[in-house]
TrEMBL record:
Source organism per UniProt: Friedmanniomyces simplex
Protein name: Manganese/iron superoxide dismutase C-terminal domain-containing protein
Protein function: Component of the mitochondrial ribosome (mitoribosome), a dedicated translation machinery responsible for the synthesis of mitochondrial genome-encoded proteins, including at least some of the essential transmembrane subunits of the mitochondrial respiratory chain. The mitoribosomes are attached to the mitochondrial inner membrane and translation products are cotranslationally integrated into the membrane.
Pfam families, per the entry: Sod_Fe_C
GO terms assigned for molecular function: metal ion binding; superoxide dismutase activity
InterPro entries: Mn/Fe_SOD_C, Mn/Fe_SOD_N_sf, SOD_C_sf
Domain Manganese/iron superoxide dismutase C-terminal: residue ranges: 138-177, 256-297
Gene3D superfamilies: Iron/manganese superoxide dismutase, C-terminal domain
Source organism, top-level taxon: Eukaryota
One Gene Ontology cellular component annotation held by this UniProt entry: cytoplasm
Length: 312
């Protein structure tokens, strides 16, 4: 009996050929991610000292490596993987967080972008020899105008952070009122707010202006709607002006905030050096090493004036 061996179809893959073919896209994507490592761990002014000595009075050398070097590197690595080849791969972490804050299908992208932004904000206000708040009298007086005293501000931030059941951030922000100004004056004041996990303090993340019902539209009609939006930027006021279009992105009746300071309450930041019951001690020592010079640089000009409002 002669057994005939059936010929393999010309378009069939051998196991080795199939394996090689399946690896091509994966390898290509890995190479693409390596080439497109556009997001990176931002340099800290005192990073070299922190790496060798830790943050004086707050975090040890090992604790710093965990909370900043290793953790921030992980956030950046994941962010590069998630944005590789996308139109927003060049975008700042804050812009990515705002863009995808309300997209449940992009939760991972939002979390990594927002956390990278928040963690950097925390470490950027720490230094080896932090200047005290008294050396910045205009900022100090502005804070006193809102909170009554610096002790009240300190107690508010530390008590709020200590009471948080779960990781997150406590922020000091300058909140500018978005209601229609009276006599051309738009007021602002200092506020303390909290965000949990990787939440963002920016109110723009919670609001999106949408002039059509997307449930009854298709991709073509939606694109036509977007293309029909006014593009005029001439003039200082009006809904079609540059100012008006920027204001339309913000929630009506709300506030526009500028964060200037935050404390990180994630356990990986303080658990290594302070132990399971040391959260309050960590917070107390954090207040004593704040770089108020860095805080003043982040504070908007209007917040440091002799009055608590700004003019447009």
């Amino acid at each position: 009996m002669i057994t005939r061996r059936l010929a393999r179809p010309s378009n069939a893959f051998s196991p080795s050929a199939w394996t090689r073919a399946s690896l091509v896209p994966q390898n290509r994507r890995q190479q693409q991610q390596q080439r497109r490592a556009l997001h990176h761990v931002p340099p800290l002014e005192f990073d070299e000292t922190f790496k060798t000595k830790g943050i004086p009075g707050l975090i040890s050398q090992h604790g710093y490596r965990i909370a900043w070097t290793d953790y921030q590197s992980l956030m950046v690595q994941k962010l590069n993987e998630l944005t590789a080849g996308e139109p927003y791969e060049h975008a700042h972490t804050k812009d990515i967080a705002l863009q995808f804050a309300r997209d449940p299908m992009s939760a991972s992208l939002f979390n990594h972008a927002s956390m990278a932004h928040n963690n950097h904000y925390f470490f950027s206000t720490l230094s080896t020899h932090p200047p005290k708040l008294d050396s910045h009298p205009s900022l100090r007086q502005s804070l006193v105008n809102t909170f009554g005293s610096i002790d009240t501000l300190r107690t508010t931030m530390l008590d709020t952070a200590s009471a948080m059941f779960g990781p997150g951030f406590v922020w000091l922000v300058w909140a500018r009122d978005l209601d229609a100004p009276v006599g051309g004056i738009r007021r602002g004041t200092w506020r303390v707010l909290t965000t949990y996990l990787a939440g963002t303090p920016y109110v723009e993340a919670g609001y999106r202006q949408q002039g059509i019902d997307t449930n009854i539209q298709n991709a073509t009609s939606y694109q036509a709607y977007k293309d029909s939006q006014p593009v005029n930027t001439v003039g200082a006021f009006g809904s079609s002006s540059k100012f008006g279009r920027e204001q339309a992105k913000l929630p009506p009746g709300g506030t526009n905030v500028q964060p200037v300071l935050c404390v990180n309450t994630w356990e990986h930041v303080w658990l290594r050096d302070f132990g399971i019951t040391g959260k309050r001690t960590y917070l107390t020592e954090w207040w004593d090493v704040i770089d108020w010079g860095a805080v003043e640089q982040l504070a908007p000009t209007a917040s440091k004036g002799t009055v608590e409002f700004m003019r447009f």
